[in-house]
Amino acid sequence: MSKVLIIGAGGVGGVVTHKCAQVPEVFSEIVLASRNESKCKQIAAQLDQPIKTAQVDADDVEATVALLQTEKPDLVINVALPYQDLPLMDACLEAGVDYLDTANYEPPEEAKFEYKWQWAYQERFKKAGLMALLGSGFDPGVTNVFCAYAQKHYFDEIHTIDILDANAGDHGHPFATNFNPEINIREITQNGRYWEKGEWKEIAALSENQVYEFPVIGPKKAYLLYHEELESLCKYIKGLQRIRFWMTFSDQYINHLNVLQNVGMTRIDPIEFEGHSIIPIQFLKAVLPDPASLGPRTKGKTCIGCDIRGIKDGQEKRIFIYNTCDHEECYREVQSQAISYTTGVPAMIGAMMMLTQKWKSPGVFNMEQWDPDPFMHALNQYGLPWHVKEFA
């Protein structure tokens, strides 16, 4: 029986709240907070059980500490923006509360996300007797656990990992992003990076692609991107020689993105417009469809998994461990499309692992540092069943 404070009332925050409410034996009290409390109240109205809502600016450490001291939660689930990871970690340290997020810190002024800022909190969390679990979404998150599970059960040594994220859903818009447009576009327009033989290799954004034959949804063109789980997995997977991340985009999506880049709409530096300072990508975010509005109109499936090669009992081995998720089924259950669902469910499960003491120790941790088995069992139980394809 535990109390959680969920910070963030976007698409993912709605899913996390729904899923926590489905497990009252663990999440006995839920508080949902956001800068805009009306969004919290809208989510609360969808639930069968009552929850509390609150207003908080996650950038304001003092205000967050005051809320934590008032509510006294056992855990903060951060599904706000990646820019707010560090202020929320600071608030948790000051108030003495455990912490979980789904994406690593990214400074607002630069499209560059890496774990160094959060890993730097290791000694402070350890000394305070608190735990921080980083990246408990799908990718990062479930993909990390898939790799740990493969390492434990399928391989003596893993040599290569290709993480592949495919969304075959159709929302009917000419151009829209499936999660926060600002974060999404910053992520895919920075240079691609991958890790090979102990060093990072960098390529121009979206300059390398492959057609991959996905289970259920078939062949899709996937582009090499940098993604944060590469940074931790290359530390914790034994014998790894190369790890890459790929995401699918339609030609229509890429064409729209190229036009937006070419006319300067994806810039993250401020410009002057009619006496006001605006950031083009934030203006673009305001005119694009709200990802939370895509749920009732999105049809199709996602497929996200890890294509892993290595050695087992002296023989070469290859598997693809994956989940497929149906947009319409997700909407029927929690009034959200599958992109938010596949992030929100693992956030709830990561919180459950901590609150039930299955994963619990002072310090700052990535997902693959823990025993994958209880998390994998919970994925099957709470809406994200996984499968393993073994190649001959």
In short:
35% of the residues lie in helices and 28% in strands. The protein is an alpha/beta fold and 392 residues long. It is globular and about 55 Å long.
Name a few traits of the molecule.
392 residues, alpha/beta, Dihydrodipicolinate Reductase, domain 2, 14 helices, globular
Describe this structure in words.
The protein has 392 residues and is α/β, with parallel strands linked by helices. The chain folds into two domains: 2-134, NAD(P)-binding Rossmann-like Domain (Rossmann fold, 3-Layer(aba) Sandwich); 142-337 and 386-390, Dihydrodipicolinate Reductase, domain 2. It is 35% helix and 28% strand. The protein is built from 14 helices and 18 strands. It has helices at residues 11-21, 37-44, 61-71, 85-95, 116-119, 122-128, 142-153, 181-189, 229-236, 251-262, 280-287, 327-334, 338-355, 372-381; strands at residues 2-7, 27-34, 52-55, 75-78, 98-101, 131-134, 157-167, 192-196, 199-203, 209-214, 218-225, 242-248, 271-273, 276-278, 301-312, 315-326, 363-366, 386-390. The strands form three sheets. Strands 7, 8, 9, 10, 11, 12, 15, 16 and 18 form a nine-stranded mixed β-sheet that branches. α1 links the parallel β1 (2-7) and β2. α1 (11-21) packs across α13 (338-355), α3 crosses α4 (85-95) and α13 (338-355) crosses α14. The N and C termini lie far apart (46 Å).
